[in-house]
Design a protein that fits this description.
81 residues, alpha+beta, three-stranded antiparallel beta sheet, 2 helices, 26% strand, globular
Length: 81
């Protein structure tokens, strides 16, 4: 079973991985802002971003593909507990 296989979905692995990455970016790399983009129909990713304190900022278009741009700053960051 792989990370992207259907049985692995909904287990929190992606949330935990993104939380670890963003925590490292703010804590060790000195980032002052982290951005992420996802298609508007990717409800699972949008829930993860919301849960971690990211805010939707604007819609983007790359060719024929639509995205929603999210961003978070250290003050809005919500690490997992």
């Amino acid at each position: 079973m792989g990370l992207f296989d259907e049985p692995s979905r909904g287990q929190g692995f992606g949330t935990e991985a993104l939380a670890l990455l963003v925590g490292w970016l703010f804590g060790k790399a000195g980032a002052t802002r982290v951005q992420a983009a996802t298609p508007p129909e990717n409800a699972a990713m949008r829930r993860v971003l919301d849960k971690l304190g990211f805010a939707a900022e604007r819609a983007l278009k790359d060719g024929r593909t639509d995205f929603v741009l999210y961003a978070v700053t250290p003050g809005r960051w919500q690490p997992l507990r």
